[in-house]
Design brief:
With 218 residues, the protein is mainly beta. The protein has 2 helices and 15 strands. The chain has a single domain, classed as Jelly Rolls. 12% of the residues lie in helices and 32% in strands. The chain is globular and about 40 Å long. Bound molecules: N-[(3-hydroxypyridin-2-yl)carbonyl]glycine (MD6) and fe (iii) ion. The site of N-[(3-hydroxypyridin-2-yl)carbonyl]glycine has 12 residues, from strand 10, strand 13, strand 14 and strand 15.
Length: 218
């Protein structure tokens, strides 16, 4: 893996939140990543997916990489083709892949090479209800690959609970440039995002973008 140190602006100590959850505050510079994401979104535009239950999500989504996460009345799954264009998802930019690999490494996961990147876009008021990420092939295995999450733009309140939806949640503020690594015992913890509060980010405006890098299949 080629390391592009120019993109790594901070080598702050990982703040380990316990149980395989790590926060790397200000891990990347959004201005360097944003053009790559904009190029992806020109090829695979953001869209509001429907849950299997028929509700339209407040968050809009797209993907890059070999696999993309989709949801519709048939369920949640990864596809190799964008259902909108019927073409493969755009390539995962190497610079993003390298940074996600480095974030995982700093959190103690040595071998993480993502092949899926879900792009979530939150406008003011958009939210993500409590969920577990278990559509990846290895999700239920004890040696599952981690999920690396990058936050861009407006800050958000991230809720994290336990292995049951009803477990008490704690919250964490995710700021522009932060990387959060979900691995080990934390991998299946319920988590979500509170409705996005109004604000203005100098680069992204009134929105938050979240990237989650995953190994969908081997
Ligand atoms: C978000 N993140 O930050 C939503 N999932 O907008 C997630 O759902 C998430 O941050 C798995 C692992 C890390 C995450
Ligand atoms: Fe998630």
């Amino acid at each position: 893996m080629i390391v592009q140190n120019s993109l790594l602006d901070s080598l702050e100590q990982t703040e380990s939140l316990g149980l395989g959850l790590s926060l790397l505050p200000r891990f990347f510079t959004t201005a360097k990543l944003w053009p790559f994401i904009q190029t992806v979104l020109e090829q695979a535009p953001l869209r509001h997916l429907f849950t299997p239950g028929g509700r339209q999500m407040s968050v809009s989504m797209s993907n890059c990489g070999e696999y993309g996460w989709v949801s519709d009345k048939r369920g949640y799954r990864y596809t190799k083709v964008d259902p909108l264009s019927e073409k493969p998802w755009p390539m995962l930019p190497t610079a993003l892949c390298t940074l996600a690999h480095q974030a995982a490494q700093q959190a103690g996961f040595k071998q993480f090479t993502p092949n899926a990147c879900l792009i979530n876009c939150y406008k003011v008021g958009a939210r993500m209800s409590l969920h577990q990420d278990k559509d990846e092939a290895d999700a239920l295995r004890s040696d599952a690959q981690p999920i690396v999450s990058f936050s861009l733009g407006l800050p958000a309140i991230f809720l994290v609970g336990g292995l049951k939806r009803s477990d008490k949640t704690q919250h964490l503020i995710l700021q522009d440039g932060d990387a959060l690594i979900f691995g080990g015992p934390a991998r299946l913890m319920f988590h979500g995002i509170r409705p996005l509060a109004a604000g203005e980010d100098t680069l992204l405006g009134a929105q938050r973008i979240n990237l989650t890098f995953r190994r969908a299949y081997d």
